[in-house]
Amino acid sequence: MTARGQRWDPERYRRNAGFVAELGAPLIDLLAPRPGERVLDLGCGDGALTEKLVALGAVVVGVDSSAEQVAAARARGLEAHVADGQALAFAAEFDAVLSNAALHWMTRPDAVIDGVWRALEPGGRFVGEMGGAGNVERVKAALTAALARRGLDAAAVDPWYFPRPDDYAGRLAGRGFRVEEIALIDRPTPLPGRLGDWLETFAEPFLFQAPARERPGLVAEVEGALAGSLSDGEGGWFVDYVRLRFRAVKPA
Ligand code: BEZ
Prior knowledge:
Blueprint: H1 10-22, H2 25-31, E1 38-42, H3 48-55, E2 59-64, H4 67-75, E3 79-82, E4 94-100, H5 109-119, E5 120-131, H6 137-148, H7 165-175, E6 178-190, H8 195-202, H9 204-207, H10 215-230, E7 238-249
Parallel strand pairs: 1-2, 1-4, 2-3, 4-5
Antiparallel strand pairs: 5-7, 6-7
Helix pairs in contact: 5-7, 6-10, 8-10
Residues 101, 104, 131, 135-136, 160, 202, 241 line the site of benzoic acid (BEZ).
């Protein structure tokens, strides 16, 4: 998962985003991997969720566009490779493709779906969770307003793709997948730290619009704008996540 201006520091990710893999458990249930099945983890990040698939007996290959995250996944003893999810080069090698919290960084969804289709054996399943329509809407609105006050355009650097279910289902079906399940799930998510840590971990393309000396002020301004809606008033913060979760099958 690499968007322009977005860096993936595994240590910062572990500190501020450990919840991403923890919240991936329902996705593993939806995949229901059987021992010995070959699974591609698309956008594996530091391998925290990949490791859970391996523990269930799956034979897993992880791919991610961040070399730093792939190195962190390999340090866990996992097979992981640097690859662009929009240009996958696998051919009928997997029983399933799983993707957690990565597809929204890939702004060419049809290229992703094509690559997944080719990677799967007939009968293979594609199970994923990503940001869906309305995801982090409040955060994005506050960022957009804070950048606009500086004469900067958030839309010009927006790296995220948060589709509606009908949009994504149409793309999957258009490629030939049978869509068995697809739905938006509201999931306000508590953060391990401040909202500013989340912004610095996940929203660098927006923050990097501003000169370095202005970034702390920008982050403070966004936190200030959202303190009434995304903090609990006692130092705890959450983000307004909306997930799009789906299961699709390549017909046998
Ligand atoms: C998400 O998991 O929904 C997400 C993560 C980072 C940036 C935007 C969305």
